[in-house]
Design a protein that fits this description.
Elements (H helix, E strand, L loop, with lengths): L3 E9 L3 E3 L18 H4 L2 H6 L9 H8 L4 E7 L29 E4 L7 E3 L2 E6 L3 H12 L3 E4 L3 H9 L5 E7 L7 E2 L11 E8 L4 E7 L1
């Protein structure tokens, strides 16, 4: 059965999945560049950006597992672009330019229609009907494989609140942001059927696995 999975989503020690004032120059928010330090040090993530080397320990194993058996992605608009409102930059093809790391269909949540975009072996579909519709389309496109639900915080909060996420890996990074987008604020996970299945600390992060049911 196809699962809806969250993988390698990182929050700060004070619970923020992004800092304040996200922009093209600061995709994760001001002073939040260290949030994903655990991931960017791994061989898996360095290879995604065409870089050699990287750590091969537990963090890398967890990062690599997050890409296994994934047939489609769903993500919020801000994980694709810095823009707000109407689409105004026709040349923008995602944060990754001509080499997106997905290699499968990606469904981007937006309030503003836009034609499908093909970049290398990835097709971006822009969905205006909401998260549940995007997940339904992604499951069909995944052809029996799992669907990976990416950020941002608002997308994950909706997924948890509505019980749409089957399994979630949340990495808690040892940094403090002091503000931004809080993942956990007023979110009662046990009441929505979630339990903490595993807590695995490493030198660079604490990896939490949440399961529904």
């Amino acid at each position: 059965m196809s699962l809806i999975r969250v993988e390698s989503f990182t929050v700060s020690a004070d619970g923020y999945g992004a800092g304040r004032d996200q922009s093209r120059e600061a995709p994760m928010g001001v002073n939040a560049q260290g949030l994903h330090g655990w991931a960017f040090a791994t061989r898996t993530f360095r290879a995604m950006f065409g870089q050699d080397g990287g750590a091969t320990g537990t963090d890398d194993r967890i990062a690599r597992q997050g890409f296994e058996n994934i047939g489609a992605w769903v993500m919020g608009r801000h994980m694709f672009t810095h823009e707000r409102g109407d689409w105004s930059d026709p040349d923008w093809r995602g944060w990754w330019g001509e080499t997106p790391p997905y290699h499968c269909p990606v469904f981007v949540l937006t309030h503003h229609p836009r034609p499908d975009l093909q970049v290398a072996d990835t097709t971006f579909h822009f969905v205006t009907e909401g998260l549940e519709s995007a997940l339904t389309r992604a499951k069909a496109a995944a052809q029996g494989k799992d669907v990976r639900l990416g950020g941002g915080v608002a997308t994950l909060r909706e997924g948890f609140t509505r019980g749409l996420i089957d399994r979630a890996h949340i990495a808690v990074s040892p940094v403090l942001l002091g503000g931004g987008e809080s993942l956990w604020q007023d979110l009662d996970l046990p009441a929505r059927g979630y339990r903490l299945a595993e807590s695995l600390p490493t030198e660079h992060a604490t990896h939490l696995t949440l399961m529904r049911g």
